[in-house]
């Protein structure tokens, strides 16, 4: 496995020294709303890294081939393709504007020379094909070099067109548009391991699509109550199992996860497994439900575990045990005493994502003040790092950060009251094989690598 | 576009808001100073009152959005219910500096807020479901088009029964010709955006076709010839050569 920490032990979050590699995006203090990154995703090989933003644009970075003459620019990510995925729309029936913000991007496994990804806003999912063109044909018989048609009766000799190299052109074209299937806001899309279907989830429903068919989808989960007055819970995230094509999970605003098996019934309103941790009575407050709301759910690569992110913690669940998680990692427990303020300024509703590393030995999630956290599942150690322009010297090591919950602040610590709650890291991604991570900080994308890598 | 009922209730609550505003501001500073870890569990009645006000404000703000964030709305409403539940047993609010409301007034505020809250929540959610129902109104025209309705969100039972085998939950091949056609994407090279336009133009194309008069059919033919010629001129179509001698 590339990027091993050395000594043969599996590389994880804390045996390594994380270093700054690159930062993408404008340096301006004034951040344009449209430039705020709303999703980050590596493809299956890790050679491509896609970001979506609030302005509906997708930017894809490609990892450069390692170059012996430039060993320092090993595996740098450079812009490969940029395109406008979604435009703002107006729903005339409801008199509503539909945001163009890209909520999620998911790559399809590569099957030929072209790359495919799904991108979605609140209402519409699109399948994009990204392909390269580095040759063009010249010497047509029926048209000349300008493309003008030649009079066929004037042609006296035939020639065989030849392929000539040209500057690499990367084209993105929309191949499918999956529209009109969601009344509520889409929060998740997930490609099935069968590589033919995918699911899309909104607040109350989950639909199953076939990648080839755009004019119909199958509703597989519907939690909308007959009487909307009885609505107390919404779907917050959903994902297919990485290997079992009939299994998926969805999380709720009440901190529960339901695992469904599509073989058991066509409609998966009845779950096969129900995961919920009983509430700790000692920490009960008015905000218990809000902070238990799950903002992200991710299966481990092995398919044995799943991870959920709620407001203050990350939990790892064994799929065979529904009663409680096998691990709970505190992300920023020092915020528990600040829940009132965080409720007032709406930060308590922020939706943080989480991700696994390739071997499933470490997990990562974001926090405030441009901090992000890594947890090593084997050594039980954790670290807080910061994505900032100050630590942006090439190959500069990241220094662990510490937050002082209250009282006396030690040197190099930052107090809770000094945290900038506008600088939130909601989206992070980990390369599927190597120790390379992408961290989205508002309008900037930071890429960090480990020293050995 | 939302119901009149909602507006009326909001007006009532806006009056209450003005009354409470003076108190709310002062109380805000009190509980914002939250270094004390016990603040969240502070004397429930006092914390509840300011939290209640805040939650009502949040609910209003959420309801005022053209399309409310359902998750945010549900969480705020549930929190409000929790706060209400904790306040009900207390007949009077304990005296707090700068909170001049008399116990009786607090009670009536609670009572009317409760009713207003439920009513506005109920009407909003009903509106959401009515709007959804409205957007599905064209559903009955589905029979006209061979490909079925592009508009999703079909009543789950209907959609599933039609297209999913109940036993296995797998997609049925019957009656879905062309479902697994050649997936070579070059087929779609000239069909950018076609699926979306399908979605915007429901069935009637087929329906009106059946009523064509011979005259109309002739015109249609001429149209397609014209299209073909246009394509050739523009260069998207290769010219079809007439068969030469000896063929």
Automatic annotation (TrEMBL), chain A:
rRNA-binding listed as a keyword: no
Superkingdom classification of source: Eukaryota
Family: Belongs to the phosphatase 2A regulatory subunit B family.
Cross-referenced PANTHER family: PROTEIN PHOSPHATASE PP2A REGULATORY SUBUNIT B
GO molecular function, one term: protein phosphatase regulator activity
TM region(s), chain numbering: none
Signal peptide from the UniProt entry: none
Native organism: Myotis myotis
Location of the region described as Disordered in the Swiss-Prot/TrEMBL record: 385-410
CC per GO annotation: protein phosphatase type 2A complex
InterPro entries per UniProt: PP2A_PR55 (IPR000009), PP2A_PR55_CS (IPR018067), WD40/YVTN_repeat-like_dom_sf (IPR015943), WD40_repeat_dom_sf (IPR036322), WD40_rpt (IPR001680)
Keyword Repeat annotated: yes
Keywords assigned: Repeat, WD repeat
Protein name per Swiss-Prot or TrEMBL: Serine/threonine-protein phosphatase 2A 55 kDa regulatory subunit B
TrEMBL record, chain B:
Composition bias type Acidic residues, residue spans: 12-22
Matches recorded under Pfam families: SERTA (PF06031)
Domain SERTA, first and last residues per copy: 44-91
InterPro entries assigned: E2F-SERTA_domain_protein (IPR052262), SERTA_dom (IPR009263)
Transmembrane spans: none
Region: Disordered, residue numbers: 1-25, 138-160, 195-224
Biased composition (Basic and acidic residues): 203-224
PROSITE patterns assigned to the protein according to its UniProt record, in alphabetical order: SERTA
GO cellular component, one term: nucleus
Protein name as it appears in the record: SERTA domain containing 1
């Amino acid at each position: 496995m590339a990027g091993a920490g050395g000594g043969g032990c599996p590389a994880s979050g804390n045996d390594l020294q994380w270093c700054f590699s690159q930062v993408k995006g404008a340096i301006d203090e004034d951040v344009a709303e449209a430039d705020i990154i709303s999703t980050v995703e590596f493809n299956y090989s890790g050679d491509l890294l896609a970001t979506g933003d609030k302005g509906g644009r997708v930017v894809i970075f490609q990892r450069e081939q390692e170059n012996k003459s430039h060993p320092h620019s090993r595996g740098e990510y450079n812009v490969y393709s940029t395109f406008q995925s979604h435009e703002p729309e107006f729903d005339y029936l409801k008199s509503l504007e539909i945001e163009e913000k890209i909520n999620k991007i998911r790559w399809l496994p590569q099957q030929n020379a072209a790359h495919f990804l799904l991108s979605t806003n609140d209402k519409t999912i699109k399948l994009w094909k990204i392909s390269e063109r580095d040759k063009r044909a010249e010497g047509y018989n029926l048209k000349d070099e300008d493309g003008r048609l030649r009079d066929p009766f004037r042609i006296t000799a035939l020639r065989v067109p030849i392929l000539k190299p040209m500057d690499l052109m990367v084209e993105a074209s929309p191949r499918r548009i999956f529209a009109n299937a969601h009344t509520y806001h889409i929060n998740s899309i997930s490609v099935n391991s069968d590589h033919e279907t995918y699911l899309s989830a909104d607040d109350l429903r989950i639909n199953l699509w076939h990648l080839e068919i755009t004019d119909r989808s199958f509703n597989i989960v519907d939690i909308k109550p007959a009487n909307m007055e009885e609505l107390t819970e919404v779907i917050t995230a959903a994902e297919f199992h990485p290997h079992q094509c009939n299994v998926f999970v969805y999380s709720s605003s009440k901190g529960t996860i339901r695992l469904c098996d599509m073989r058991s019934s066509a409609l998966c309103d009845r779950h096969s497994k129900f995961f919920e941790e009983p509430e700790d009575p000692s920490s009960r407050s008015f905000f218990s439900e809000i902070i238990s709301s799950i903002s992200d759910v991710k299966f481990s690569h092995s398919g044995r575990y799943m991870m959920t992110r709620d407001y203050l913690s990350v939990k790892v669940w064994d799929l065979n045990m529904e009663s409680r998680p096998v691990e709970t990692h505190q992300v920023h427990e020092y915020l528990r005493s600040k829940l009132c303020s965080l409720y007032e300024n709406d930060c308590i509703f922020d939706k943080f994502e989480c991700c696994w590393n390739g071997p499933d030995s470490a997990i990562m999630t974001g926090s405030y003040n441009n901090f992000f956290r890594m947890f090593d599942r084997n050594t039980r150690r954790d670290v807080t790092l910061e994505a900032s322009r100050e630590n942006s010297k090439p190959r500069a090591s990241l220094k662990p950060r510490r937050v002082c919950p209250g009282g006396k602040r030690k040197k190099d610590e930052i107090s809770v009251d000094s945290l900038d709650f506008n600088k939130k890291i909601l989206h992070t991604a980990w390369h599927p094989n190597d120790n390379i991570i992408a961290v989205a900080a508002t309008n900037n994308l930071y890429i960090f690598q480990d020293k050995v890598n | 576009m939302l119901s009149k009922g909602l507006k009326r209730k909001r007006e009532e609550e806006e009056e209450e808001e003005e009354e409470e505003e003076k108190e709310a501001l002062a109380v805000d500073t009190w509980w914002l100073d939250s270094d004390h870890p016990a603040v969240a569990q502070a004397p429930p009645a006092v914390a509840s009152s300011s939290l209640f006000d805040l939650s009502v404000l949040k609910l209003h703000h959420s309801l005022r959005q053209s399309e409310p964030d359902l998750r945010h709305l549900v969480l705020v409403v549930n929190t409000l219910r929790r706060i209400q539940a904790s306040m009900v047993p207390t007949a009077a609010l304990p005296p707090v500096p700068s909170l001049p409301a008399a116990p009786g007034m607090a009670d009536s505020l609670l009572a009317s807020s409760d009713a207003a809250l439920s009513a506005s929540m109920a009407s909003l959610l009903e509106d959401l479901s009515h709007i959804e129902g409205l957007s599905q109104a064209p559903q009955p025209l589905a029979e006209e088009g061979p490909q079925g309705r592009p508009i999703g969100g079909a009543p789950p039972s209907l959609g599933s029964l039609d297209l999913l085998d109940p036993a296995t939950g797998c997609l049925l091949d019957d009656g879905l010709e062309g479902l697994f056609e050649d997936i070579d994407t070059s087929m779609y090279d000239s069909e950018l955006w076609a699926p979306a336009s399908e979605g915007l133009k429901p069935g009637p194309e087929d329906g009106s076709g059946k009523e064509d008069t011979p005259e109309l059919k002739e015109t249609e033919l001429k149209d397609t010839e014209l299209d073909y010629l246009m394509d050739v001129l523009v260069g998207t179509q290769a010219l079809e050569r007439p068969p030469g001698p000896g063929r």
